[in-house]
Amino acid sequence: SLREVNQPPNKWIVYEQILRIPYYFVYNRYTDEFHCFGLVMNRYQPLSMNGLGVWLEEAELGLGLWEGEYQGLTRQWLRWYDRDNNWLPTPEEREKQRADSAELEVAKLRQLLLAQGISLPNDQ
Question: Distance from CA of residue 99 to its chain's centroid?
Fold first, then answer.
């Protein structure tokens, strides 16, 4: 057709037929529709979704819709999950986990010092 001659191919065609990207995801943030396609015999076919989203065996990761707050906005977001259906932590969640772990470690060390009769300036 004239469109094929006069215009570059659309993203779907480029990913499917030229680059052969194994997965193609479509997410509409206005309707929260999420569709996943996998390359099967050189054509994208719809992938079946589980309760969270779609599991990508080769990547050992899943991609699904998560409802929660991220960057100050509460809504549905695309988010990766692991084999046990645990959402992978965001950078902010990882930082909070690290800070919580550090605080716990400081509290343990403080208790060990107190048990040895050593008090710290903040213990008064």
Answer: 21
Give pLDDT tens digits for 45-70. Answer: 999 998 899 999 999 999 999 999 99
CB-CB contact of 47 with 25 (8 Å):
no
| Strands (DSSP E) found in the chain | 23-28, 33-40, 43-46, 53-56, 61-70, 73-81
Under 8 Å between Cβ of 19 and 28: no
pLDDT tens for each residue of 91-121: 989 999 999 999 999 999 999 988 988 888 8
CB neighbour list of residue 53: distance below 8 Å, 6 or more residues apart: 34, 36, 62, 63, 64, 65, 81
Alpha-carbon distance of 61 to 54, in angstroms, equals 9
C-alpha–C-alpha distance, residues 64 and 54, integer Å: 6
